[in-house]
């Protein structure tokens, strides 16, 4: 892992937060230039948050089974993705691999960091093109030149956004086994899937990292809580290079409350899983719908007659969905979140009235 890091990150002396050096109990804290006064009537808001989200990581271990020693909390997965790019990729030299159609944020963070993106597309039925991926990895390795950039990261999104399907774990494992860079498995939608998580692979593949989030199943998109699951070594490096106070105390508190309500969250997930096939079946019956793709996530990818027209038609009715028809293999596809029964029915009713 060390030799994959950017040199400036490997040799980084991290910012030392106030209170980092202090262990034990005290009653007078005059080390961080905080203000002892409190004007918002929310205990703790006048103090800096815990840089390592220690209590939150302990709760995440308890409720999600992700070992605290192997997690770092980010300001959403977005921050974790950006940090991974900045940790490993030398701007203007190294590159990453992604497997489109997939989550657009990977490319944006690479563009921002001046890191080139290579692609091996999914097959037309949205499966991993294993032969092409392994051939790409082999040839990239063979053609590396001393002193030049190389492939550092490979993004696999499973269940994949926007195609909604999860990839078999043995294929993810085969990719990780054949790649000597960092394999990133983004499992934002894992809670809605029956496919086994790549977290179980992490102990055997120290260069494999998994991303989770509280934004989807845990209904906390506004709090911005993303989770890196990785080797202790990778976690230590990310903890040293992230913004020291990257997760605010209101966000940490909201996440703790959310996790304490895990029974309600699980019941809520069951409700979404119940709505998903009903919504899919109702959509499939409509004359303007050509295909509803199978889903391991809390959204459906729907192929319609004319995505652009239907997208604006729905918008005029106050219903916002995502037009994905410009993505590879996704011609005329809309991505629609599974909402509550009323919201889903509103979509169905509107589409019933749609005329070409
Ligand atoms: C929604 C989503 C995330 C979550 O991002 P956050 O920054 O944690 O809200 C991550 N990856 C994918 C593929 C997503 O669709």
Task: Provide key terms for this protein.
single chain, 356 residues, alpha/beta, 7-stranded mixed β-sheet, 4-stranded antiparallel β-sheet, 11 helices, globular, binds pyridoxal-5'-phosphate
Short description:
The protein has helices at residues 7-10, 54-64, 76-88, 105-112, 130-142, 169-178, 232-241, 249-260, 262-284, 307-316, 341-352, and strands spanning 71-75, 95-98, 116-119, 151-157, 182-186, 208-213, 225-229, 289-292, 299-304, 322-323, 333-337. It is of the alpha/beta class.
Main structural class: alpha/beta
Radius of gyration: 22 Å
Secondary-structure element sequence? HHEHEHEHEHEEEHHHEEHEEH
Q: Write out the strand line-up for the largest beta sheet, numbering strands in chain order.
A: 1-7-6-5-4-2-3
Number of β-strand runs: 11
- Helical run tally: 11
Q: Kindly report how far apart the N and C termini lie.
A: 56 Å
Low-confidence stretches: none
Q: Please give the largest β-sheet.
A: 7 strands, mixed
Give an account of the 3D structure.
With about 350 residues, the protein is an alpha/beta fold. Helix content is about 35%, strand content about 15%. The longest helix has 23 residues, at about 260-285. It starts with 6 loop residues before the first helix and ends with a helix. The site of pyridoxal-5'-phosphate has 13 residues, from helix 3. The site of pyridoxal-5'-phosphate (PLP) has 13 residues, from helix 3.
Write the layout of secondary structure elements.
Blueprint: H1 7-10, H2 54-64, E1 71-75, H3 76-88, E2 95-98, H4 105-112, E3 116-119, H5 130-142, E4 151-157, H6 169-178, E5 182-186, E6 208-213, E7 225-229, H7 232-241, H8 249-260, H9 262-284, E8 289-292, E9 299-304, H10 307-316, E10 322-323, E11 333-337, H11 341-352
Parallel strand pairs: 2-3, 2-4, 4-5, 5-6
Antiparallel strand pairs: 1-7, 6-7, 8-9, 9-11, 10-11
Helix pairs in contact: 2-8, 3-4, 9-11
The structure holds pyridoxal-5'-phosphate.
